[in-house]
Amino acid sequence: MAQTWRGFWRYKLALALTLLITVVSAIVMYVYQDRTVGLIGAEASQRLADAVVPFATVTYCKVALIVSFTVSASAISDDVASGAFTFYFVRSTRPFDYVLGKLAGLYVLVLPIMLVGPLLLAALQLALTPADRNVLDQLGVIPRTIVIGMLGTLIYSAVPLGFSAMSRSRMLALGSWAVYYFAIGMVAGMLALFVWAPLGALDLSTALSQTSIHAAGLQMGGPFSVPMWASIPGILVPAAASIALAAYRVKRAADTGVGGVS
Amino acid sequence: MTEATEAPPTAARPPLIAVDKLVKRYGNVFALRGVEGVVDGKIIGLLGPNGSGKSTLLKCLLGIIPFEGSARVLGLSSATEGVAIRDRVGYMPEQEAYLSGLNAVEQCTYAAELSGLPRTEAIQRAHAALYYAGIEDKRYQPIDGYSTGMKQAVKLAQALVHDPEILFLDEPTNGLDPRAREAMLKLIMELPERRKCAIVLSTHLLADVERVCDHAMIMHQGMLRFVGTIDELRGARGEDTDVIVEVKSDAQKLADALSAQDAASVVFSPVALSVALPLGETSALVFRVAKAVGVQVRGVTIKRMTMEDAFLKVIAAANAAAAAASGITPSEGPRAF
After folding, report:
1. Closest chain A CA to residue B101
2. For the residues A183-189, what does the mean pLDDT come to?
3. Residue A250: exposed, middle, or buried by beta-carbon count in 10 A (0-12, 13-18, 19+)?
4. Dmax over Cα atoms in chain A, in whole Å?
């Protein structure tokens, strides 16, 4: 984490973008909540304001994606290349500790992007709730946002971590993560459109955004509406598989490649 | 099983290293083929040609890689107590082992924290270890910009930072210029006294072992071929069959007299000769014969093999044994070293 904090492009840029998205989304929410009532009616303007958090989540995903390319997707391959792998395993660090530590570190890095920003927006949504609406009903937005934020953080920390363990080469790790994210995402979108909507959950950002939209009670319908029974596994299965893959690869590498040969 | 100890291990103090039928294979390739031995000492040289299994043995001992058979370090099982062993053992790997972008203090502090020390103590120990390794004034500079010698010194500091009981050094003088090599060897020699730790020095540089080690282990083709003191390795096993005799004069006269007693002698100056004592005889024969022929002896030195000769002899014996076992004529000698 200390290394990540050094330099602007690796992580600070993402935090700046997160702040920018939060400010812009807050302004949009305020406008929907307060200024459009006269134009489209109270109920419609309220629905628009309620949709800001779920839709902002899609934008936060883009920032988390940037961090996955600058930090997460090469976390392990960088360690192998620099000799840090050896540094860890000649001490009392076990492969499981290492993977868990990396995952926790990346989780903490992605958390401000996927959780803190949305949580601020959710708090603003609560603050702007008109007096005639039931505040207790509106309180649900907080735990909802926390759960979605944590799931989003899991996606953008665990899955790139899995790819970073697939190769000793940084470029190969980044390339395979990019192919998976963009190509699978595109294919999933086509399949959802032409074959079966739940297949859209194969795209990580779609799975997250659809979960967020459903959790907010905003039903879209149509071919892009991935049901929650598909979207939640669409998040959890790749994350679990990636952690398992990383653990397996690190254990294997630690068993054979630590310390060099003389 | 070969055994060599200065003070025999007791129940209270187990031997530094004890291995029994240790086998490590990668697929069908055997890296270690039944290593056996008990090792103790202050500075133990682990010698062997490239590919002989030295680094693999160290990794097995540390419990980093799985293996068959038994290995114990400080009485702990490498197979099941690897984490506990690595808490008590420092390992300086051959290859680079740094976190890019960190300076030496951060690196050593992190290493100490990974070994279980609280942060404040880890920082103190990091400074002390770096001071000891001679990196005091440049310790806040990023390691990426260090010279090879400084990087080796940081690796040594990292291995020392948690105050280990044994230090495994894998080729610590590799890539160092003569001055840096000298400094590193000096550090290694002082470690047992100043830090109260034993050292296993893995190297293929015989001169380094001769200079700093009191014990040696020789690996060849995945097996431990010799364990013992350096004196034992160089032929001083209580037999002392070859001696150099210095006399006041008449070296040839003494040589003739000794030859008549079956002690083959070669004169190489009027005052010095080399004598190969017959089986069962000691240097007392030289004095007896000298007195009989009236030659004044001024000194008798046991002639020992050079480290290189001793090493080659062990390897040749291993090759011969292997050839005899397989019925193949042994090759001319060991692989290039």
Report:
1. A3
2. 89
3. buried
4. 78
Return the SS3 of B171: coil
* CA-based nearest residue in chain B for residue A91: B86
Residue B199: name the closest of B95, B79, B316, B92 by CA: B92
Interface of B with A (CB under 8 A): 26, 50-51, 54-56, 58-59, 62, 64-66, 83-84, 86-87, 91, 93-102, 106, 111, 114-116, 158, 170-171, 174, 202-204
Q: Which residues contact B336 (CB under 8 A, 6 or more apart)?
A: B49
**Single-letter amino acid, residue A200:** G
Mean pLDDT per 10-residue interval, chain B, length 337 residues:
47 83 90 91 90 90 91 94 91 85 90 91 92 84 86 90 92 85 88 88 89 92 90 66 87 92 88 86 88 92 80 86 70 40
Which domains occur in chain B, in start order?
A: 3-233 (3.40.50.300), 242-302 (3.30.70)
Contact call for residues A86 and A260 (beta carbons, < 8 A): yes
Chain B residues in contact with A101 by the CB 8 A cut-off are none
Q: Return the SS3 of B167.
A: strand
